## 1
Amino acid sequence: MKIINDAVDHVRREEKKQRPELKHSRYVWLKNPRTSKPVKATCSKKLSVKGLNLKTVRAYHIRLNFQELWQQPLDQAEVFLKKWYFWATHSRLQPMIDAARTIKRHWQGVLRWFSSQINNGILEGINSWCKPPKHAPRLPLSAQPHHHDLFAGGKTQI
C-alpha cells in the first residue's frame, strides 16, 4: 500500500500546482475512508465532485480499488488483480503506472499472501528474533572509562 499511497501523493503534489483547492488536503487522500474523521470525509466529498475532474481523485479511486483486493476470495484474487493492473496502467497517471508495474514485478508474492496470510511485518518480526544484536550492551555511565583516563601517560586505566 505504501507504493500506491506514494503514487497518489505524487499525483496530488503535481496537480496542486494548477489546482489550489488541493492545498492542505494530503491526508484526505492517504487515510482509509472507513477510519477517517467526519471533517476529512466531508472535505473528500467536496474535492471528489465529478465536475472538478481531478487527477488526484482518479488516483485515489485506483488506490481504493487496490485495497479491495485483500477482501477477495483466493479463486478471484488474480482476476481482480489483473483488472486492477489494466485500469492502473491505462490511467494516464505516470506515478500510478509506475506503482502498478512495481506490483506486477511482485505479482506472485502479492498472490501468495492469499494462501499464507503472512505479510512483511510478520516476516520482519521473525527475522529480528533470529539476528544477533548489532552492538554490545552498553555499560552504565558509572562504569564507563573517561576519555582523559584512557590515555593518561600512555597507560590504559579501566
Note: Residues 74-89 form the longest helix (16 residues).
## 2
Amino acid sequence: MSIIAKDGGKEFAKIPLPEAGTTQAVCCGVWDLGNQKTKYQNEDGSDKYQHKIVIAWEISERINEPSSEYNGKPYMMTKTYTLSLGEKANLRRDLESWRGKPFTAEDVKQGFDLEKLYGVNCFIGIKHETSVKNGNTYANVTAILPLPKGTEKIQPVRGKDEKPPKWVSELQNVSADNLPTIDEAADELFGVPEVGSAQEDEI
C-alpha cells in the first residue's frame, strides 16, 4: 500500500508585524535552551556550542487580524541571548539598560536570577529588519529601557508556568548532537497566551 504525501492546501493567516518604534512591554517568559550549536567554530575547527536562553515580552499592541486565531491577543516579542554576564555580553548590556543601573562586581559574582524578570515592565525598541537569507521582514527587539516612574503597568497574559512556543520546545528537546542553529529554528513568532498573574516589578 502506498503512502502519499500531498500539500493539503491549508493557508494560515499571515499576522501583520507590530509597529516599529518604542512601545511598553512586560516580560512574559524566560526559557532555558541549554547548550545550542551556533554557526561559529572553535579554533580547532570543531562546532561551537553556547548556553542560550530566550526572553519574551508581550507588548501593549494587540494583533488585528480577524482571520487569525491570535486576533485580539498581545504581540509576543522574543530575543535570544547567550547565558553570560561577561562585560561584552548582550544579556548584561540589555539587563543593565532595563534596570537603569550597571551590575556591580558583587552582583556579577552572585549571579542574576532571570526568573525574576517575569511580570517586569519596560519599554522596548522594535525595528523591522529584512533577512539577507530569505528576504522576509521581521520585527526585532533592538533596545530595552526601564519604565518611567508613574507609568501604569501592564500585566502579562501568558502564565509564568505556561509551556513555551513550539519552536522553543523543539530547541529544548532535540539532541545536542543534532541541534539546528538559532537562526534556522526561530520560525514561529507568537505563542498562544492565557490568563496569568504578574509578580512584583523589581529587578
Note: The chain has a mean pLDDT of 84.
## 3
Amino acid sequence: MTPNLRRVASSSSSNFMSSPMSKPQLFAAILTVLVCAPSYANAALDNTATAAQEQSGSRNGVSDERVSQELELFRSVEVSLREALKKDKTRSSMRKINELGLVQMTRKRTRESLQRQLCNPCPYCSGKGTIRSVSTVASEIMRQIRKQAVSHEATPTIVIKAHPEVITFLYDEEGERLDDLERLLKKRLIFRATASVHHEEYEVSAAAASQSVA
C-alpha cells in the first residue's frame, strides 16, 4: 500500500472510528478508496519495475564486463598458441577458441604408423586384407565368355585360364550353365587350370581350333 493510500485509509478509518458516519459519508469514503487504489497500485508497480530494471542493468554491466574479460583472455591464449605452432615443423591448422574455451587443432602425420614400419603389405591381397571370392571370379568369367563370343563370332573356340579353385568351381557349380552357354554361343569352351595364377586373375580369349589344342 502506498503512502497516499495509507493516508486515505487511515483518515477514513479514524473518522469512522471517532464519530459515527452517515450512509452518504460511508459510501463516499468507500468510493474514494476504490477510485484511488488502482492508480496508487499502478504507481507502486511502476516504481518496483524501475528498481528491478536498474538492478538488472547493474548486473548486466558486471556480466558484460566479465564476458569481455574472458574473450580477451581467449584471444591472448589463441595468439600465444599460434605463435608456438609456428615453431612446429609439422604442418598444423587451428580454429578459433569457442565459447566453451575449447580449440580444434589438426597436425599432419609425417611418419608412418608403427604397423607400417614393422610390417609389409600382403603380396597376395596387396594389403587390402581380402580378395574376391571364387564365385565372384567365376561370374566375371561367365560374362567375359559372352563378350568374347560376340566380338569374335568367327572363332569357334574360347580358352579360359584361371586358378584351379576357380576352374573346379565352374565345373562343379556352373556345369549346366556352361553346357547351355556352349549350345547358345555355338562355341567350344576350353578350361585350363594354372596354379601360378592369382585367385583373382583369369584370362578369357578366343582362339582358333589349332591354337586351342596346343
Note: The mean pLDDT is 74.
## 4
Amino acid sequence: MGRRSGELRSHHVGPGVPLDPPEIGYAKCRELLAPEGLLALVWNLYEPSEDPLDEMVQKVYRREAPELCRKPPDGAETRIQWTLDELRASGCFEEPLLTRYPWINAFTADRYVDLLRSFSDHRKLDPLQLERLIVGIRGEIEACGGTLDRRQIAVLFFAYPRRTY
C-alpha cells in the first residue's frame, strides 16, 4: 500500500535508494514527509587505504573485472560535501545536520567475498567472471594473513522539510 503525501514522520534513505536526479528525488522525499517529519540519509563510506593488500585486491579487479575498478578515491569527505550541496540546492529541506561515526570493519576472506557477492554491480557479472574475481580476491586476502581491514565512516544526514519551497 502506497503512502499519501505528508503522511510519514521519518523517511530513511540508504545508499541503494536512487535519488537521481536529485532535484526530483529530494522533492519526492519532501512530499512524503509530514510537516514535522525528518529525512535521514544513512551511508557507510569507505576511506581510501594505503594498505598494500588493498592495492593487490585492486589488481585482481583490473585483471578479472576492470569495469568494477574503483575510480581514484575521492574519500568520504568529498562524498559528504557533495551530498550536503545537493540537499541544500534542492531547496526542499532546512540546513542538514550531519553525524559521522568512523570505524574499522575487519573482514575474513570468506566474509569479504560474501559481501562482494551481494553487491548489485558484482551480481551483474557473468558467473564465471564473478567466480574468478572472488577466487582471486580470497587468495590475496588469505596470502596476507586472512584479514582485510576497511576503514569506514557511518554517515548520517538529517534534514527537516522546509516549510515553503
Note: The radius of gyration is 19 Å.
